[in-house]
Design goal:
Blueprint (H helix, E strand, L loop, with lengths): L4 H35 L8 H9 L2 H32 L9 H4 L2 H4 L1 H18 L5 H5 L7 H8 L3 H28 L7 H32 L4
């Protein structure tokens, strides 16, 4: 039986919020490397970033990887289905929500484009980090040192720039997606609309700035050792 448009939006919203929680966890662990810099433990086996990577290598987290991948695939699939349905129904109005103000934002109109950019760089990111750490440990191989891997990845300024562009695209995608998810689930009203918008902006700022700080910090360590 075919799912209704509301049900499809609900599935996409729930999967999106699930991915947002993972992003917060992922950013926090990465930002531990910045804290290590100020604590003088960057590159140390006793560093917070090393502890975070060890936590991500635990069996319970490894089991969650297929669940995360499934959530990601579900989110992408329903985003494409809804975008195609909106295109057929509204023509040039590619991504629509009930609130006219929210629909008028650039991010709201280009959610699919932003999603494609994010998806492409997720694959790029997995090749740089996940394949060298979690995947190797899962296969019983010796994982790369997380600090050295950070330095090697961000030693070139253009790589840092690529990641910053990715983080900004991710942030723009989240700015609309965060609020839209709560609206779809019926948790947004006249009282909470502005509150959720502000919370969303703060949340996105923390995510983007945390990731950017990690990349810039690793660049400094790789090139001048001044951090």
């Amino acid at each position: 039986m075919a799912l209704s448009s509301i049900t499809k939006k609900l599935i996409m919203s729930i999967s999106g919020l699930f991915l947002i929680v993972f992003l917060l966890l992922h950013m926090t662990i990465n930002f531990f490397s910045v804290i290590d810099t100020f604590a003088g433990t960057y590159g140390s086996a006793d560093g917070l970033f090393q502890a975070g990577c060890d936590f991500m290598a635990l069996p319970i987290i490894t089991i969650m990887v297929p669940v995360l991948a499934l959530g990601f695939l579900v989110h992408i699939a329903y985003a494409l289905i809804l975008s195609y349905g909106n295109y057929k129904a509204r023509g040039t109005e590619r991504y629509a929500v009930a609130n006219k103000t929210k629909t008028g934002s650039w991010a709201a109109k280009n959610m699919l484009v932003l999603g494609v950019i994010v998806l492409g760089l997720v694959a790029f990111h997995l090749n740089h980090f996940w394949a060298e750490m979690q995947l190797k440990e899962f296969m019983g191989e010796h994982a790369e040192n997380p600090y050295l891997l950070l330095n090697a990845t961000f030693q070139n300024w253009w790589m840092v720039l690529i990641y910053i562009v990715w983080f900004v695209a991710l942030g723009l995608h989240l700015c609309h997606g965060f609020w839209s998810a709560f609206q779809t689930m019926g948790l947004s009203n006249k009282i909470w609309e502005k509150r959720l918008t502000v919370i969303g902006y703060v949340f996105v700022a923390v995510i983007v700035l945390g990731f950017c700080a990690t990349a810039i910090n690793a660049f400094c360590h790789a090139n001048c050792g001044c951090c």
